[in-house]
Amino acid sequence: MSRIFDASTTVHFAVQSLTAQDVTVVTNAIDAASVLADKDGITVHLLGGTLNGRHRFLYGTATLQKLSEYQVDKLFLGACGITADGISYPHEEDGAVKREMIRRADQVIVLADSTKFGKRLFHRISGLEPIDMVITDKEPDPAMTQVLSDYDVEVVVAKGGNVDD
């Protein structure tokens, strides 16, 4: 199994709960790499690049170049905003990395709490077309649920627990 984990707060919670074995992980998140390094059965590839010290992620040309060498089964991607127009973030440099992560994954899984629905931020990184699944804490409103259904995005309402896949 191979996975990409981005540098979002929600994805970090999934990283902490990961129980799967024999997993190869690619990440640009300093904190995720640190947590994963202490788990048995996980090989971590930390992307290089320029460090955003405040949010503790790597970005830039070196990050994108290294990321382009990988192809993974699943991407776990956080979102700051989810609307009918797609997924958005406040940081353009982080968005460029997330866009490349989407290109590198066979399955794109967005992890977002329900407060992210209906929010639109400065930098749009993707429409809803490449998104396969959204895992959230509450069902989105009916209009957003319909939009996600129109794009064949599966919505899963999580109740908590460990991540074994």
UniProtKB/TrEMBL annotation:
Keywords: DNA-binding
SUPFAM superfamilies with a match to the protein in the record: NagB/RpiA/CoA transferase-like
Keyword presence, Translocase: no
Signal peptide: none
Domain DeoR-like transcriptional repressor C-terminal sensor: start-end pairs: 4-138
Gene Ontology terms, MF aspect: DNA binding
Pfam hit, one: DeoRC
Annotated InterPro entries: Carb_Metab_HTH_regulators, DeoR-like_C, NagB/RpiA_transferase-like
Protein name (Swiss-Prot/TrEMBL): DeoR/GlpR family DNA-binding transcription regulator
Native source organism of the sequence: Alicyclobacillus fastidiosus
